[in-house]
Design a protein that fits this description.
The complex is a heterodimer of chains A (411) and B (388). By secondary structure, chain A is mainly beta. Helix content of chain A is 8%, strand content 37%. Chain A has a 19-stranded parallel beta sheet that branches. A 12-stranded mixed beta sheet of chain A has the order 3-6-8-10-13-16-19-22-25-28-30-31. The two termini of chain A are 40 Å apart. Chain B has 2 domains: 237 residues, no CATH class; 120 residues, no CATH class. In chain B, helix 5 packs across helix 7 and helix 6 runs antiparallel to helix 7. With 388 residues, chain B is of the alpha+beta class. In chain B, the strands form 5 sheets. Chain B has a 6-stranded antiparallel beta sheet with strand order 3-4-6-9-10-11, covered by helices on one side. In chain B, strands 1-2-8 form a 3-stranded antiparallel beta sheet, with no helix packed on it. A 3-stranded mixed beta sheet of chain B has the order 7-12-13, with no helix packed on it. The termini of chain B are far apart. The chains are: A mainly beta (411), B alpha+beta (388). Chains A and B meet through helix 2, strand 3 and strand 6 of A and helix 2 of B.
Chain lengths: 411, 388
C-alpha cells in the first residue's frame, strides 16, 4: 500500500520533471486558459488570512483583477518569475484593484496594463513588496498612468519594488497617511516617485533615474486633505533627464524634464542626506501651484494653499545638473548663476499673509536661486537669506509590526 | 434511509439539470445557486420569459448605458415586509428582497435562433418592450441576469449568464466577456460585452467606502419617480410600490425626480445632470470610489467646481486627452469629461467598466451641456496673489 503511494508520487514527480511542465506559446506566455478565471475566483473566495500563491510563469490577462476581502496576501515566485501581463487587456482601468484592509502583495510583476498597474483604494495597512510594475515597450504616453498606486490608505509600505515606464508616476502615494517608500527603483517614468496630498511619509533608500522628475512631493487642489510632513533622505536621484512624455493637462506634465526632487505646494518637507546629481534642470525644485499653469480662479477651492512652506534642504551631496533646463522659460535664469541653474531652484511665490515661508537650505556650498515668479522672473537672484533650520525635525515613520515583517527575499 | 436520500438527491439534480426551478420566487438566505432557475423568478416557455407572482417590473427615468443593451428590471419582496422611503439614497429594503436586471439585445429579424445570434441590433421604438408581463423572446438574445439579493448580512450581487439554449442562466462569479457585433443601422461594430465579476459588482454598488456595503443604484426615489405601465395602469411607480405594500413613508410632495435624458421638452442641463448622475455618480460622489478625484457628479452636488468647472484633474494620467480641465465652459472639445465618456480605451474611458462602445447620444448630450455653460477658465498665475 505504502509502496503504491510512493510509486504514484514518483510518477507524478517524473511527469513534472520530464518537460511536461507548463507549455509556452509563441509570445512566451504560459498556456493556461483557466489561469485568469481561477485567480479571480481565488480573489473572490479569499478570506482574512488567505494566502494566494501565484506560481512562476508569464500569464496573459484580459480583465482587471479585483480583491475586496480583508487580510489577504498575494505572493508570487519573484518579480522576474511570476508575471501578470496585461498586454492583451480588453477591459478594466487597472491590472489589479484592491479595496480590502491588511493587504500584502509580494514577489510578482504587472506588465503593460492599459491603465494603472496596481491600485489600492481607501483601506488600512497595505504592503507592496518586491513588486515590479513595468511597461515593456519603454517610456510612452500611451502607457498606463500609475504603477503602484495606493490612494487614501492609512499605513503604506512600498519596498524593494521596481517601476518602469509609467506615463504619470511610477510609485504614486495619494491622499494617504503614515507611509514608508524605501529601497525601490523608479526608472523611465514621467515622475519616478510621487507623494501627493499625503501626510507623514518617509521616502528613503530609493534609486530614481531616467525619469523626467525623480521624486515629487506635491499638493493638489480640491482634495479633502492637504499633505505635509514628508522626509526624502538617503536616496540616489540622478540623471532624471527623460523627456516629459506625460499627457498635457496631467499634473506631472508641468514637470520640467531634468528635475531631481520637486516640492510643489507642500509643507514641512525635509530633503537630506541624498545623492542628487546630473539633473539637467535642477537637482532640487521648490515651487508653488502657480508655476504649474493649472491655477484658475474658478476651479480651485478657496481653502487650497498653493505655497510650499517649511522646506528644509540639508546635507545632500549634489553634483552636476542645471545646465540645460527642460522648460525653455527657465533658460534665461542660467545667467544669474554663471551659466547653470544652481542646485536649488525656488520659484519665489510666498503667501503675503505669512511672514516667513521657512524655505531653509543648509547644504554646504549649494546655492538657491529665487526665480521671483511673482514678477515673472524680473528679480531673479541667488538668495543668500535661506540659511535657516526648522525649530524641530520630523520624526521617523513607524508602521505596525505586522507590516514590516518580511517572510524572505526572493530573486 | 440512504436510498431515499440518494433518490431525492438525484431528483434535485435532475430538476436542476432540466432548468426547472421552483414555480414561485424563492429567497436563498445563504447559498448561491448555480442556476438562476433555483430562485424561481421566471418561467421560460413558448417564446416568452415571464415573471412570477409578486415581481414588479420597473424602469428608470434615465438609465446607465451598457453598450446599448436593453434592460428588464424587477423587484420582489417576501410577504409582510416593505422598504422604507429615503429621499436621496436607495430605499432601506427588507431582508428577502430580490432585485433582477436582465440584460438583452434585439437580434436581427433574420436570425433563426436569436439566442445564439452574435449580431445584435440597436433597440428601436418598434422593438421596445416594457416587460411588465415579461419579454417576447422571438427576436431577443438574453445575455445575463444580475441579482441583487438582500440578505441578513447585507446585499449580495450575483451575475448569471444565459445558457445558449436560452432556458436557464448559470452563475458566473468571475464574470465573462461575450463577443458581439452591434448593427447600428447597417454599420457593424464588434465589441466585447463584459459581465462584471462579483467584486466588480461591488465596485459600482458600494456607494460609501467606509461601510463598503453594497446598495442598489437605480432604486432611488429620483430614478423611480415616473409613470410606468403595470398593475393599476400607467401610474407613478412609487405609488404602485406603495399600493403593492412594497414601500412605506412616501411623502405626498417633495419627492426628488431626475429628468428623462431623452425628453426634449426638459431642460438640457437637467437632462445632462440626470445622465451624469446615473452613469457616473455611483463612483463620483463624496463617499464613492472616485471621491479621490474631487469630481462629484451626483444629482445633489451644486458647486460648479465640484462638477468639474475649470477644475484641474487630480490623477487622470493620460485620461486627460491633453486637455487642461474637467469642464471648460462652452468648450466641450477642450474638456476632459466628454473625452473620457467617448473613449473606449480601458486606460482612459469612463465609466471604467461595463462599456466597450461609445454611447453617441449620451456623449452628444454632455457635449451640448458643456456648450451651454458660461464662463472662462482664466489662469491665475499668482502675479496678483494678494487678491486670493
Amino acid at each position: 500500500m505504502t509502496k503504491g503511494i510512493a510509486l504514484a508520487g514518483c510518477a507524478a514527480l517524473l511527469a513534472l520533471m520530464s518537460g511536461c511542465g507548463p507549455k509556452v506559446d509563441q509570445q512566451g506566455f504560459t498556456v493556461d486558459p483557466d489561469f485568469e478565471k481561477n485567480l479571480q475566483q481565488k480573489l473572490l473566495d479569499a478570506k482574512p488570512g488567505s494566502v494566494i500563491d501565484v506560481p512562476a510563469g508569464k500569464y496573459a490577462l484580459t480583465r482587471s483583477l479585483s480583491l475586496t476581502a480583508d487580510g489577504v496576501t498575494i505572493r508570487g515566485a519573484g518579480m522576474g518569475k511570476t508575471i501578470l501581463s496585461f498586454a492583451r487587456q480588453s477591459s478594466g482601468a487597472e491590472g489589479m484593484l484592491v479595496t480590502g484592509n491588511d493587504f500584502t502583495i509580494e514577489d510578482l510583476a504587472f506588465e503593460d496594463t492599459k491603465g494603472d498597474a496596481l491600485k489600492v483604494n481607501g483601506v488600512k495597512n497595505s504592503v507592496i513588496r518586491r513588486v515590479r510594475a513595468e511597461w515593456t515597450g519603454g517610456s510612452k504616453t500611451s502607457n498606463g498612468a500609475y504603477g503602484l498606486y495606493p490612494v487614501q490608505v492609512t499605513n503604506v509600505l512600498i519596498e524593494g519594488s521596481v517601476v518602469k515606464g509609467a506615463s504619470d508616476a511610477g510609485i504614486y502615494v495619494g491622499q494617504s497617511n503614515n507611509i514608508i517608500v524605501r529601497d525601490n527603483r523608479a526608472e523611465g517614468n514621467v515622475a519616478g516617485i510621487e507623494i501627493e496630498n499625503s501626510n507623514n511619509a518617509d521616502v528613503y533608500g530609493n534609486i530614481a533615474t531616467g525619469n523626467a522628475g525623480g521624486i515629487l512631493v506635491f499638493n493638489m487642489p480640491n482634495l479633502p486633505v492637504p499633505g505635509s510632513k514628508t522626509r526624502v533622505f538617503k536616496n540616489q536621484v540622478f540623471a532624471n533627464n527623460h523627456a516629459n512624455f506625460g499627457a498635457k493637462g496631467s499634473a506631472v506634465s508641468s514637470v520640467p524634464a531634468g528635475s531631481g526632487v520637486i516640492v510643489n505646494s507642500n509643507d514641512q518637507v525635509e530633503i537630506f542626506d541624498n545623492d542628487i546629481k546630473d539633473n539637467k534642470t535642477a537637482n532640487v525644485l521648490i515651487s508653488s501651484y502657480y508655476s504649474t499653469g493649472f491655477d484658475t480662479k474658478k476651479g480651485i477651492a478657496a481653502a487650497y494653499d498653493p505655497y510650499p512652506e517649511n522646506i528644509y534642504v540639508t546635507g545632500n551631496r549634489f553634483s552636476g545638473g542645471g545646465e540645460d533646463p527642460g522648460n525653455p522659460t527657465l533658460v534665461p535664469l542660467k545667467a544669474v548663476n554663471g551659466g547653470r541653474l544652481p542646485d536649488i531652484l525656488w520659484d519665489g511665490f510666498t503667501n503675503p499673509k505669512i511672514k516667513d515661508p521657512g524655505i531653509c537650505v543648509q547644504n554646504g556650498a549649494a546655492k538657491t536661486l529665487n526665480a521671483d515668479g511673482p514678477s515673472k522672473f524680473a528679480g531673479a537672484r541667488i538668495d543668500t537669506g535661506r540659511n535657516c533650520a526648522p525649530p524641530s525635525r520630523l520624526p521617523a515613520i513607524v508602521l505596525p509590526d505586522a507590516m514590516t515583517k518580511d517572510s524572505g527575499t526572493k530573486s | 434511509m440512504i436510498v431515499r436520500l440518494v433518490v431525492s438527491l438525484c431528483a434535485a439534480l435532475l430538476l436542476a439539470a432540466c432548468g426547472h426551478g421552483p414555480r414561485a420566487v424563492t429567497f436563498h438566505a445563504d447559498d448561491n445557486p448555480e442556476k438562476l432557475s433555483a430562485w424561481g423568478l421566471f418561467t421560460v416557455a413558448d417564446g416568452r420569459i415571464a415573471p412570477h407572482e409578486g415581481m414588479v417590473t420597473y424602469d428608470l427615468q434615465t438609465p446607465l448605458f451598457s453598450d446599448y443593451a436593453q434592460k428588464w428590471r424587477t423587484i420582489w419582496m417576501p410577504k409582510g415586509v416593505h422598504a422604507a422611503y429615503r429621499p436621496n439614497t436607495a430605499f432601506d429594503f427588507p431582508v428577502g428582497t430580490i432585485v433582477t436586471k436582465t440584460f438583452y439585445y434585439t437580434a436581427p429579424a433574420s436570425a433563426t435562433d436569436p439566442q445564439t445570434s452574435d449580431t445584435v441590433v440597436k433597440m428601436t421604438p418598434a422593438t421596445y418592450q416594457a416587460g411588465v408581463s415579461g419579454l417576447d423572446l422571438r427576436h431577443v438574445r438574453l445575455i445575463e441576469t444580475r441579482l441583487l439579493v438582500r440578505r441578513a448580512s447585507g446585499w449580495v450581487a450575483l451575475p448569471y449568464i444565459w445558457d445558449t439554449d436560452g432556458r436557464d442562466a448559470t452563475l458566473a462569479r468571475t464574470g465573462a466577456d461575450i463577443a458581439l457585433t452591434l448593427d447600428e443601422g447597417g454599420k457593424k461594430v464588434a465589441f466585447d460585452y463584459s459581465v462584471p465579476n462579483q467584486n466588480q459588482c461591488a465596485g459600482c454598488h458600494v456607494q460609501d467606502f467606509r461601510t463598503r456595503a453594497i446598495e442598489p443604484i437605480g432604486l432611488k426615489a429620483r430614478n423611480l419617480n415616473r409613470d410606468f405601465p403595470g398593475e393599476g395602469g400607467e401610474i407613478n411607480q412609487l405609488k404602485r410600490l406603495v399600493a403593492k405594500g412594497y414601500l412605506s413613508g412616501l411623502p405626498a410632495s417633495g419627492v426628488p425626480r431626475n429628468a428623462n435624458w431623452q425628453d426634449l421638452k426638459i431642460d438640457l442641463v437637467d437632462r445632462a445632470r440626470a445622465y451624469l448622475d446615473i452613469n457616473c455618480s455611483h463612483c463620483h460622489n463624496p463617499t464613492g470610489a472616485a471621491r479621490t478625484s474631487g469630481l462629484w457628479l451626483d444629482a445633489e452636488t451644486i458647486d460648479p467646481r465640484l462638477l468639474g468647472m475649470c477644475k484641474p484633474p487630480v490623477a487622470a494620467g493620460r485620461g486627460t486627452g491633453d486637455r487642461p480641465f474637467d469642464v471648460v465652459p462652452g468648450h466641450p472639445e477642450r474638456s476632459i469629461l466628454p473625452y473620457r465618456l467617448a473613449s473606449t480605451d480601458p486606460g482612459v474611458m469612463m465609466p471604467e467598466l461595463g462599456r466597450d462602445i461609445e454611447h453617441h447620444e449620451g456623449v452628444k448630450l454632455i457635449y451640448d451641456y458643456i456648450l451651454t455653460l458660461k464662463g472662462a477658465c482664466t489662469e491665475d498665475d499668482g502675479t496678483g496673489q494678494a487678491a486670493r
